[in-house]
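Structure ticket #2291
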Amino acid sequence: MEAPDLLATTEAARAEGLNVVLVEQPYRVAGRRSPAPAAQLDVAWTAVVEALRGEVLSELPLVVGGRSLGARVACRTAEALDAVAVLCLAFPLEPPPRAGKPRQSRLAELDSVTVPTLVVQGERDPFGIPPPGPARQVVTVPADHGLKADLDGVAAAVGSWLSGFSLT
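Resolution: structure written out below.
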Protein backbone atom coordinates (compact mmCIF):
# COMPACT_ATOMS: atom_id res chain seq x y z
CA MET A 1 0.00 0.00 0.00
CA GLU A 2 3.01 2.28 0.22
CA ALA A 3 3.90 1.86 -3.45
CA PRO A 4 4.76 5.32 -4.79
CA ASP A 5 2.35 5.04 -7.73
CA LEU A 6 -0.51 4.10 -5.39
CA LEU A 7 0.27 7.09 -3.20
CA ALA A 8 0.42 9.42 -6.22
CA THR A 9 -2.91 8.02 -7.42
CA THR A 10 -4.44 8.45 -3.98
CA GLU A 11 -3.38 12.10 -3.89
CA ALA A 12 -4.75 12.69 -7.39
CA ALA A 13 -8.12 11.13 -6.48
CA ARG A 14 -8.36 13.10 -3.26
CA ALA A 15 -7.55 16.29 -5.18
CA GLU A 16 -10.66 15.49 -7.27
CA GLY A 17 -12.70 15.32 -4.04
CA LEU A 18 -12.95 11.54 -3.89
CA ASN A 19 -12.74 9.32 -0.84
CA VAL A 20 -10.00 6.70 -1.15
CA VAL A 21 -9.62 3.45 0.74
CA LEU A 22 -6.43 1.43 0.29
CA VAL A 23 -6.66 -2.31 0.89
CA GLU A 24 -3.68 -4.60 1.40
CA GLN A 25 -3.81 -7.93 -0.43
CA PRO A 26 -4.56 -10.74 2.07
CA TYR A 27 -1.47 -12.75 1.19
CA ARG A 28 0.69 -9.74 2.07
CA VAL A 29 -1.12 -9.26 5.38
CA ALA A 30 -0.36 -12.93 6.12
CA GLY A 31 3.32 -12.32 5.39
CA ARG A 32 3.42 -14.47 2.26
CA ARG A 33 5.34 -13.58 -0.88
CA SER A 34 3.17 -15.55 -3.27
CA PRO A 35 -0.48 -14.74 -3.85
CA ALA A 36 -3.37 -17.11 -3.33
CA PRO A 37 -5.27 -18.43 -6.37
CA ALA A 38 -7.29 -15.85 -8.28
CA ALA A 39 -10.67 -17.06 -7.01
CA GLN A 40 -9.51 -16.77 -3.41
CA LEU A 41 -8.18 -13.24 -3.98
CA ASP A 42 -11.46 -12.22 -5.62
CA VAL A 43 -13.55 -13.57 -2.74
CA ALA A 44 -11.41 -11.77 -0.16
CA TRP A 45 -11.49 -8.49 -2.13
CA THR A 46 -15.24 -8.69 -2.61
CA ALA A 47 -15.78 -9.31 1.12
CA VAL A 48 -13.64 -6.30 2.06
CA VAL A 49 -15.37 -3.99 -0.42
CA GLU A 50 -18.82 -5.15 0.66
CA ALA A 51 -17.90 -4.55 4.31
CA LEU A 52 -16.68 -1.05 3.44
CA ARG A 53 -19.88 -0.39 1.52
CA GLY A 54 -21.79 -1.20 4.70
CA GLU A 55 -19.76 1.43 6.56
CA VAL A 56 -17.48 4.03 5.00
CA LEU A 57 -18.58 3.84 1.38
CA SER A 58 -22.32 3.25 1.90
CA GLU A 59 -24.12 5.08 -0.94
CA LEU A 60 -21.07 6.40 -2.79
CA PRO A 61 -20.31 5.44 -6.39
CA LEU A 62 -17.48 2.91 -6.41
CA VAL A 63 -14.33 3.06 -8.52
CA VAL A 64 -12.27 -0.09 -7.95
CA GLY A 65 -8.64 -0.36 -8.83
CA GLY A 66 -5.24 -1.64 -8.00
CA ARG A 67 -1.70 -2.05 -9.17
CA SER A 68 -0.43 -5.13 -10.99
CA LEU A 69 -2.14 -8.17 -9.43
CA GLY A 70 -4.57 -5.83 -7.64
CA ALA A 71 -5.58 -4.39 -11.01
CA ARG A 72 -6.43 -7.89 -12.22
CA VAL A 73 -8.57 -8.48 -9.11
CA ALA A 74 -10.35 -5.14 -9.66
CA CYS A 75 -11.16 -6.07 -13.27
CA ARG A 76 -12.48 -9.52 -12.37
CA THR A 77 -14.72 -8.20 -9.57
CA ALA A 78 -15.89 -4.85 -10.99
CA GLU A 79 -19.20 -6.12 -12.32
CA ALA A 80 -20.11 -8.09 -9.17
CA LEU A 81 -19.32 -5.04 -7.04
CA ASP A 82 -21.36 -2.74 -9.30
CA ALA A 83 -18.35 -0.48 -9.79
CA VAL A 84 -18.85 2.61 -11.95
CA ALA A 85 -15.23 2.59 -13.15
CA VAL A 86 -11.93 0.68 -12.89
CA LEU A 87 -8.44 2.11 -12.44
CA CYS A 88 -5.49 -0.14 -13.29
CA LEU A 89 -1.88 0.72 -12.53
CA ALA A 90 0.74 -1.44 -14.25
CA PHE A 91 -1.67 -4.12 -15.44
CA PRO A 92 0.43 -7.29 -15.97
CA LEU A 93 -0.76 -8.13 -19.48
CA GLU A 94 1.57 -11.08 -20.07
CA PRO A 95 3.63 -12.86 -17.43
CA PRO A 96 7.31 -13.31 -18.20
CA PRO A 97 7.80 -16.19 -20.64
CA ARG A 98 8.76 -19.60 -19.27
CA ALA A 99 10.76 -22.12 -21.23
CA GLY A 100 8.48 -24.52 -23.04
CA LYS A 101 5.28 -22.63 -22.09
CA PRO A 102 3.15 -20.58 -24.48
CA ARG A 103 2.69 -16.88 -23.74
CA GLN A 104 -0.36 -16.19 -21.60
CA SER A 105 -2.31 -13.02 -22.21
CA ARG A 106 -4.53 -11.58 -19.49
CA LEU A 107 -6.28 -9.28 -21.93
CA ALA A 108 -9.58 -11.14 -21.38
CA GLU A 109 -9.66 -9.81 -17.81
CA LEU A 110 -9.46 -6.24 -19.10
CA ASP A 111 -11.87 -6.91 -21.95
CA SER A 112 -14.48 -8.21 -19.51
CA VAL A 113 -14.79 -4.76 -17.93
CA THR A 114 -17.62 -2.73 -19.46
CA VAL A 115 -17.42 0.41 -17.31
CA PRO A 116 -14.94 3.23 -17.98
CA THR A 117 -11.43 1.97 -17.34
CA LEU A 118 -8.07 3.69 -17.13
CA VAL A 119 -4.85 1.73 -17.47
CA VAL A 120 -1.66 3.60 -16.59
CA GLN A 121 1.28 1.59 -17.87
CA GLY A 122 5.02 2.08 -18.03
CA GLU A 123 6.23 2.25 -21.62
CA ARG A 124 9.08 -0.11 -20.64
CA ASP A 125 6.87 -2.53 -18.70
CA PRO A 126 8.18 -6.08 -19.30
CA PHE A 127 4.60 -7.35 -18.84
CA GLY A 128 3.54 -5.48 -21.98
CA ILE A 129 1.11 -2.68 -22.73
CA PRO A 130 -2.58 -3.47 -23.21
CA PRO A 131 -4.41 -1.92 -26.15
CA PRO A 132 -7.19 0.62 -25.69
CA GLY A 133 -10.70 -0.80 -25.77
CA PRO A 134 -14.29 0.39 -26.13
CA ALA A 135 -14.46 1.64 -22.53
CA ARG A 136 -10.71 1.49 -21.84
CA GLN A 137 -8.20 4.32 -22.05
CA VAL A 138 -4.52 3.42 -21.87
CA VAL A 139 -1.94 6.02 -20.87
CA THR A 140 1.76 5.23 -20.97
CA VAL A 141 4.37 7.00 -18.90
CA PRO A 142 8.17 6.81 -19.24
CA ALA A 143 8.64 4.10 -16.64
CA ASP A 144 8.83 0.35 -16.10
CA HIS A 145 6.36 -1.86 -14.21
CA GLY A 146 6.94 0.07 -10.97
CA LEU A 147 5.83 3.39 -12.52
CA LYS A 148 8.20 5.17 -10.09
CA ALA A 149 10.10 7.05 -12.79
CA ASP A 150 7.16 9.35 -13.57
CA LEU A 151 4.88 9.71 -10.57
CA ASP A 152 3.77 13.14 -11.75
CA GLY A 153 2.69 11.58 -15.05
CA VAL A 154 0.78 8.86 -13.20
CA ALA A 155 -0.98 11.44 -11.01
CA ALA A 156 -1.78 13.67 -13.99
CA ALA A 157 -3.26 10.78 -15.99
CA VAL A 158 -5.41 9.65 -13.07
CA GLY A 159 -6.53 13.17 -12.16
CA SER A 160 -7.45 13.99 -15.75
CA TRP A 161 -9.38 10.76 -16.17
CA LEU A 162 -11.27 11.14 -12.90
CA SER A 163 -12.21 14.74 -13.69
CA GLY A 164 -13.63 13.59 -17.03
CA PHE A 165 -16.77 11.97 -15.66
CA SER A 166 -19.22 12.49 -12.82
CA LEU A 167 -18.99 10.21 -9.80
CA THR A 168 -21.87 11.76 -7.91
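Closing remark: The CA atoms of residues 65 and 87 lie 4 Å apart.
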